[in-house]
Amino acid sequence: MSFDLVLLRTEGKPETYICEGWPEDLKAEIPGITVHFARSPEEARPHLTQADAAFGWIDADLFPLAGHLRWLACPQVGPHPSYFHEALVNSDVVVTNVRGIFNDHISAHIMAYVLAFARGLHVYRERQLRREWRPDYETVYLPESTAVIVGLGGIGVETARVCVAFGMTVIGVDPRIEEPPPGVAELYRPDAMTAAVARGDFVIVTVPQTPATEGLFNTALFRAMKPTAFFINIGRGATTDLADLDAALRSGVIAGAGLDVYEQEPLPQDHPLWSAPGALLTPHVAAIGPYLDDRRREVFFENCRRFAAGRPLMNVVDKPNWF
């Protein structure tokens, strides 16, 4: 089946990494495809009127032009909520994403937090800066610890696998899957979140930002955790109330927190979380690693082949829930 495809490169949006060689590569692989490479929304306008598919962002002001659109490929896993504007959500356009391409990199970052907290590196780093020799941190013995992983998508499942390799017990919380994935000892629904996090020595959040997860982690859930527990968030910053987290760390409600994502990015220089006790902060780098462009290309090209053949697409998004 022939189809018209628009690749949208929009400055300031993540799809600036679109490879300019893609049009030629797609034409070589998929007979009958017509590919338009647009370097700006203005350049995309005349092509969107006939487009069957597109890769990138189609904002609400452009979307009315795309009357023939049947498939929109998002270049991210969890884009800004504005991606899912009302017109797109209410349309018949199928949206896909690139989930799965970051699993190994992000799970490694999560385990870096886990190991740092377990062995006291967050404490000893501060003492190093003060030239203070005090070897008295009480380590966490991982084979006797429990990780509660909130969100069992690809990243959560891979993190569970690595946790189990260190001897940890894993409890999962997820709204969609029916059976615990390999390595997950118990599975709970989000309505049992409070009971689940109360059992964790590490509470690891991998969920995307959705209407249901915005502000999910707040004072009430931090107070449900053990005072010796560590909170780790590499999902989306909007899931966690940073003022509540800062208060929980300063009051000893929880023992520490590892964050790679924040409500506001960059985190303001005057934000109190920078100096909160037990906080390990990284600047939204958990996904960084090799082969991402190749993996993104592979997912998109496979979906182009499927679209041309009339087969089901990979990584279809639940549009009202943004993931």
Can you walk me through this structure?
The chain is α/β, with parallel strands linked by helices and 323 residues long. The chain has 2 domains: 3-100 and 290-317, 3-Layer(aba) Sandwich (Rossmann fold), CATH 3.40.50.720; 103-281, NAD(P)-binding Rossmann-like Domain (Rossmann fold). Helices cover 30% and strands 15% of the residues. It contains 10 helices and 12 strands. The strands form 2 sheets. Strands 8-7-6-9-10-11-12 form a 7-stranded parallel beta sheet. Strands 2-1-3-4-5 form a 5-stranded parallel beta sheet. Helix 9 (242-250) links the parallel strand 10 and strand 11. The longest helix is centred in the C-terminal third of the chain and has 18 residues, at 292-309. It is elongated and about 70 Å long. It starts with a strand and ends in a 14-residue tail after the last helix.
